[in-house]
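Exercise 7. Given the encoded structure of a 69-residue chain, write a plausible sequence.
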């Protein structure tokens, strides 16, 4: 896998993706094997989902506003 938790830079990039956030939230119910070198919290996973939703909403509002002019 290109983005992994084995190096700091790739861990940061991986933690910014919504799919990785969902995987982290599902690990609470179904834990995986060995812990990662750069783990992240459930709060961080929820924050990723909230930020993606806010950015998507802002892009949608701004893009529609510009097209109507």
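Solution.
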């Amino acid at each position: 896998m290109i983005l992994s938790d084995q190096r700091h830079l790739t861990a940061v990039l991986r933690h910014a993706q919504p799919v990785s956030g969902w995987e982290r939230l599902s690990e609470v119910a179904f834990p995986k094997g060995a812990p990662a070198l750069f783990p992240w919290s459930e709060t961080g996973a929820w924050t990723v989902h909230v930020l993606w939703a806010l950015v998507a909403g802002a892009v949608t509002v701004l893009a529609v506003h510009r097209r109507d002019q």
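Remark. The first helix runs from residue 8 to 15. Students should compare their own answers with the one above.
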